[in-house]
Write a sequence for this structure.
């Protein structure tokens, strides 16, 4: 049976998107879905988000609460990250057939290793480590060759009224945020069953 496509809007600056990635890894093989990760930069869509600013106590508390509920450990950066280069780099990696590897190393760098993924040299080192052509990537990032693709994702997210990250699109229903693995499994399975029913009619 073919997999049901589930788009997920994400940002590398979002710790909850990192948690979502880890939770979905726990469910790997349990759901007949294909997750399609669509990068959207929070700072361009949320007035309250300021790249480089210290992460306040209230935000930290919320993040750690979700991490605890989902059983995902993480190392939180001191400041909000600027993800512009990282998101465009993901599109470059997708073109090169290395999206999954790139996705893993960038999230790990930000939320496990405490690296500043907004710094271009850091990002290029990560890309080099998974075998991406670094000179090509650097050129694409510096010339803004992939900026439009991220803006298209942002426009798409806006049409669905998406206001939080991560957001899983279950058909026309946006599932915002991340729940423990078993809750996610039940919610997504219900959607998959309904999608299959509709195809069967």
């Amino acid at each position: 049976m073919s997999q049901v496509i589930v788009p997920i809007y994400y940002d590398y600056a979002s710790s909850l998107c990192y948690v979502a990635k880890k939770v979905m890894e726990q469910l790997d093989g349990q759901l007949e879905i294909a997750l399609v990760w669509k990068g959207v930069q929070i700072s361009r869509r949320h007035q309250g988000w300021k790249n480089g600013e210290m992460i306040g106590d209230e935000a930290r508390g919320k993040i750690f609460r979700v991490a605890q509920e989902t059983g995902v450990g993480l190392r939180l950066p001191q400041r909000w990250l600027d993800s512009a280069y990282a998101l465009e780099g993901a599109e470059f990696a997708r073109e090169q057939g290395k999206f999954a590897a790139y996705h893993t190393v960038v999230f790990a760098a930000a939320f496990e290793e405490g690296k500043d993924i907004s710094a271009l040299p850091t990002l290029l080192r990560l890309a080099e480590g998974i075998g991406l052509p670094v000179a090509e990537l650097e050129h694409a990032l510096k010339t803004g060759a992939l900026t439009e693709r991220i803006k298209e994702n942002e426009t798409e997210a806006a049409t669905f009224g998406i206001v939080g990250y991560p957001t899983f699109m279950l058909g026309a229903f946006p599932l915002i945020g991340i729940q423990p693995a078993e809750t996610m499994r039940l919610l997504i399975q219900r959607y998959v069953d309904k999608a299959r029913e509709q195809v069967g009619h």
The longest helix spans residues 181-200. The chain has a mean pLDDT of 91. The first strand starts at residue 4 and ends at 10.
